[in-house]
Amino acid sequence: MSASTATASEHVSFLEYKGKYKGILGWILSTDHKRVGLLYLYTMLVFFSLAATLGLLMKLQLIAPGYTIMGPQTYNAMFTVHGIIMIFVIVVPGLPAVFGNFFLPLMIGAKDVAFPKLNLASWWIYIIGILVVLSSQFVGGWPDTGWTFYAPYSFRTPANVLPALFGAFILGFSSILTGINFVVTIHRMRAPGMTWFKMPLFPWTLYATAWIQVLATPVIGITLLLTVMERVWGIGIFDPNLGGDPILYQHLFWIYSHPAVYIMILPGLGVISEIIPVFSRKRIYGYKAIVLSSLAIAFVGYFVWGHHMFTSGMSGRALFAFSFLTFLVAIPSAIKVFNWVATMYKGSLNLQTPFYWAVSFIFVFMVGGFSGLTLGSLAANVHIHDTHFVVAHFHFIVFGGTGFSFMAALHYWFSKMFGRMYDRGWANTGWVVFFAGFLTLYLPMFGLGMQGMPRRYYDYLPEFHAGNIISSLGAILMIAGAAIVIVNLVRSARHGEKTSEKNPWGGKTLEWETDTPPTFENWEDIPSVEERPYEYK
Amino acid sequence: MILGASTFVEGVNNAFLFILVIAVIIGTGITLTMLWFIYRYHQKRHPKAVQIKDSISLEITWTVIPIILVMGMFYYGYVGWIPMKRPPAEGINVTANARMWSFNFRYENGRVSDKLYVPKDTAIIINLNAMDVLHSFYIPAFRLKEDMVPGLANNRTWFEATKVGTYTIFCAEYCGLQHSYMLSEVVVMEPEDFWAWYEDPDAMVVEVTEDVNLALLGRQVVERNGCLACHSLDGRTLVGPTFKGRYGETITVITGGQERQIIYDEEYVRRSIYEPDHDITVGFRPGQMLSYEGEITEQEVEFITEFIKSLNE
């Protein structure tokens, strides 16, 4: 490459970079990790809006007992599709697919991920998976089994379950390939001098997550495939009428789906570990403790799936062991919270939108965690299992945890990604409305569950009315907040104030040393690393 | 927590409250600390951050204390749960049958009821029997829940009620269209009232005399077997065709893939109960209803027919 072209490309951001293809093809055929990350972001924005709308319609149905705006079949289909999209399309790929793709190479000083073509293929597989899932809308109607596809209902229902099962199976491959890509990238492509314990915390959590993706996802793949075969050919693995075992299905399903919860939440914990020190102007407290706790969560998380099945008819000994391990997996999360709070101590706090999201994340993560302990307790679980308490708990963890950290990440890295700044006033307003709506929506569900209202309920007894009214109003408020946040970001990405400031927040990790927005291949010279991250003086 | 009425309530509530109290104390503590730091160390008030060295002893402290606390939580959960897994040898045996979307209960003397009648202060051992898909037997007031798994032998649970009253039974495991209407009640009675009900000779055999209202008996059979979850009495279309205003009419059904016209008569009612998929009324799905052979007697079919007839008026 001649000197003159090098200087030219130095100033062309990846957004304006002209590769082999032009226009939209320049995006959907681009192997640039940053463009792939944004492809995931846009896809998720579309499908999050769809699934959130379904959620809002469900809450409107529940605002009063009886028929409000839809019949039971529609409602059952809606919570199924809401769950499938939110889990398999949004939160499982979630932070790794968007921010992992965009920032992992930047944070470890690499030019791209290890296998850029495989990375683009992951996105294409992801799109195919989504299309297959949604095709049921046009062939036989939406599935009505819940996102868990429990046997034997998933064989008996006349609704068309096959596209959803097969689509989720395809989506699994996208997840596995991204996981392999990240493991190799982190092992092989760290900048000179960046030893394992000089690596920032977000890449660390991506590393732990990637291993879960690679090792656990095949289990759900085979389970979904067996379910497809059972439904089509009646092979008799799960259906008791054919000699199968429905509890076996639950085991296989949760052997993946519990670790999957950590796929969802670990990268979120990583993002918060980035944001807290930067806005506190302080070295992260307990760097090694946070790293080790991430690995511990990923490891112990494999052995607690049975707590989804405390009332399924498993043996008492198994329940005893699963409850015990479930309590242990709470410890690493607690350690993280203590270290984050300790990081703020004697800091110099710069209160910006990402920091607000991060602090509210800690709050909702605690509520979700404590309610998780209640569910892990054998006696308490018997009462609240399969009730609205569980719904509240996992929305606090999965939506609160992943959602708040996703929003924190988006506001934290926004200017780096788009070369523009968002409107801070609207961003903060959106956060306040969203946070208030979130609490109003989900806190009453804990009460409903303690009262005994089961989940996946189209209609309910009058005694549950009060909690449902508050919750439904909260849903409206929260969706309003989400709309403010999203409209502000979308608007700002196109018309926001332009900025080329490399490091607006004073971060100490490598991504802040690149241009804003970064150029194609990120670096002219690969940086070398001497210090640990977050070394504020 | 809602009111409790069984011997399990205390154990469950203790396990719950122990966690709740610790959660509120620690959660409030951390939240207030964060808020205080945000105020105290705001960059306006604290322009220069003070760097602090990691402390191994602090890390160990906030690892060990939570471990002790969660072991306490585990212990209370275990202690509250153990009695649920140890049904006493003696007790009243009842088989709970669940199907989409109703419960019924069969006692040892052959009595069948759509509500669960039990005496106070007596161990009731429930054999859980799911006839089609997963259901879950849930009585919030008793803090009792156990899944009903088709094909799982010896799936049992038990309870001992402590207060006379009527409490809702829910199906807690999603089981399809009418899941949220799959409800029943447990009626806790004084033992003498229960035994009077249990041995009530009138409930067992129905002697048909001139002045017995057959339609009324039919209505009881229909209610007891949960038919109304899917068949309305007022002409509304639910999962299956309504009972109202059809008797004696000519209807179009699909039999073995062929459309045909038949008369809605007693023979049709009997076939629909014993072989539900034989004739499917046009516009409805096959495979939704299980056969009631062995559950509804020939005599009861007569009652049901009279009841459906009476709805024409």
Could you describe the 3D structure shown?
The complex is a heterodimer of chains A (537) and B (313). By secondary structure, chain A is an all-alpha fold. Chain A has one domain: Cytochrome c oxidase-like, subunit I domain (Cytochrome C Oxidase, Chain A, Up-down Bundle), CATH 1.20.210. Helix content of chain A is 67%, strand content 1%. In chain A, helix 5 (94-108) packs antiparallel against helix 9 (201-233) and helix 10 runs antiparallel to helix 13. The radius of gyration of chain A is 23 Å and the shape is globular. Chain B has three domains: 9-85, no CATH class; 92-203, Immunoglobulin-like, CATH 2.60.40.420; 208-310, Cytochrome c-like domain (Cytochrome Bc1 Complex, Chain D, domain 2), CATH 1.10.760. Chain B contains seven helices and 13 strands. The mean pLDDT of chain B is 89. Chains A and B meet through helix 4, helix 10, helix 11, helix 12 and helix 13 of A and helix 1, helix 2, strand 7 and strand 9 of B.
What's the number of structural domains of chain B?
3
The residue-averaged pLDDT of chain A reads 92
Q: What is the fold named in CATH at topology level of chain A?
A: Cytochrome C Oxidase, Chain A
Under the CATH scheme, the architecture of the largest domain in chain B is Sandwich
For the termini of chain A, the CA-CA separation is: 40 Å
Query: Helix and strand succession of chain A?
Result: HHHHHHHHHHHHHHHEHHE
Helix content of chain B: 25-40%
Write down how many β-strands of chain B occur, each being a DSSP E stretch of 2 or more residues. Answer: 13
- In helices, the fraction of residues of chain A equals 55-70%
Number of separate strands of chain A: 2
Work out the radius of gyration of chain B.
28 Å
Strand order of the largest sheet of chain A: 1-2
Unreliable stretches covering 5 or more consecutive residues of chain B: none
